[in-house]
Amino acid sequence: MIVALAGGVGGAKLILGLSQALPPDGLTAIVNTADDLKLHGLLVCPDLDTVLYTLADIADPVQGWGVASDTTEALQMLKRYGHTPWFRLGDRDLATHLLRRALLDDGKTLTQVTASLSQALGLQAKILPMTDDRVETRVRTQGREIPFQEYFVAQKAEIPIEAVRFEGIETARPTAEVLKTLAGAKAIIFCPSNPLVSIGPILALPGMREALQRAPGRKVAVSPLVRGKALKGPAARMMQELGEEASALAVARRYVDWVEIFVLDEQDQELRDPIRSLGLEVLVTDTIMNTLEDKARLAREILDYVFTSRGQGQK
What mean pLDDT, rounded, does the chain reach? Predict the structure, then answer.
């Protein structure tokens, strides 16, 4: 069993690649839920749904999230009622949130609901929310605190931030399914997701550090930054605004206590030695995933490194 920790479009891309490189039942994704938001009485889970739609081959190929060729008739009707929606929900996407709300109201956990949605979409890889407890990423900006989705979507991540906080993290816990999966993992891959707000909440869960330390599999992190820029999302800008340099080296420093292997894009190969000096093994390769072939190739290269002599103590 290979486990991927993920959130966002970059994480979903590598998970899709791993699904191509592994047996049907050989992959479990543990996905960030701190981006979730309550909207129109529904629970919207952007990261979970991006992984679901990507693996089901129905994700919008341009934006990477939402359902391909979706319509927005429901949003247009909301506008007629005088409500101006700031978070785009397509009509088929809306069906996911409606069913999720109904199942949650029937007493199902988010883990059970996600399993039901996965099964209905014909997925064989397992998708687990990081927790069934409510955690919300909140961003401090311009002297006030707002939910992450308001910053990311409504404000288009264009306003400077001063701090990031995970509300509810102190009392949240990884699910039993997450802990069991980690305990049996042959490798754990930190996907090229935003280290602050996608991977960060997963690692911040009480008990997660101990679970990862006990996990027998090797731990690998893939840089989400290439030449100091994020291929998708605001990771680079957020890091800079919080006082860090935006570089793969800075990401490696964040993960140095968590992983043994760091995957670096070939455009950043001059950072190989500085990252090695942190005590990490470094795999340098092309990490940009534009096509399905790119995704599967990167997944196979990572797995090959982990499970062959090249990945046994080489630095």
Answer: 95
